């Protein structure tokens, strides 16, 4: 009888290991939670994530208070006027147009013309330039060149206005 009771009081080997494992897990959890680095990460992690999402939006809104000059090289000879009508509708808070368009005739040496425009962009006197190919139906008929290629909001606005102008010409 004594041996039967003794066997029931002692836990099987697998259970003893599981109990020790849970004790180790609980201890490691307590040690980790009591560290300053854990709480700094818990509190600052969400703030850092919010800053990563909100930062670019705030920077784009602040940058939109300035006029942007855009040179249009219209090789088709038909897109400048409709484009200026579509893009001229956007106004800044001051009431000035957000984009000022300048027409520039296509040069015989486009490489030199583009190099000159790139220099103007780097100097800060120009926001970008738009090149319109003669065949408006081609896939790459519109190409926009900017200093800040990450300015997706303004790039999208110009591309949208140009696409609407091309659709207007096609209709």
Structure description:
The protein is of the alpha/beta class and 171 residues long. The protein has helices at residues 2-9, 13-33, 36-63, 80-87, 110-123, 152-170, and strands at 68-74, 99-103, 128-132, 142-146. The chain is 57% helix and 13% strand. The longest helix has 28 residues, at 36-63. The chain is elongated and about 85 Å long. It has 6 helices and 4 strands. Helix 4 (80-87) crosses helix 6 (152-170).
* Shape estimate: elongated
Number of helices: 6
Main sheet makeup: 4 strands, mixed
Helical fraction equals 55-70%
Which spans of ≥5 residues are poorly predicted at pLDDT below 50?
Answer: none
Strand order of the largest sheet: 2-1-3-4
Strand fraction = 5-15%
Please trace the helix and strand order, writing H or E for each element. Answer: HHHEHEHEEH
Report the span from N to C terminus: 101 Å
Radius of gyration: 32 Å
Structural features:
171 residues, alpha/beta, 4-stranded mixed sheet, 6 helices
Topology at a glance:
Layout (H helix, E strand, L loop, with lengths): L1 H8 L3 H21 L2 H28 L4 E7 L5 H8 L11 E5 L6 H14 L4 E5 L9 E5 L5 H19 L1
Parallel strand pairs: 1-2, 1-3
Antiparallel strand pairs: 3-4
Helix pairs in contact: 4-6
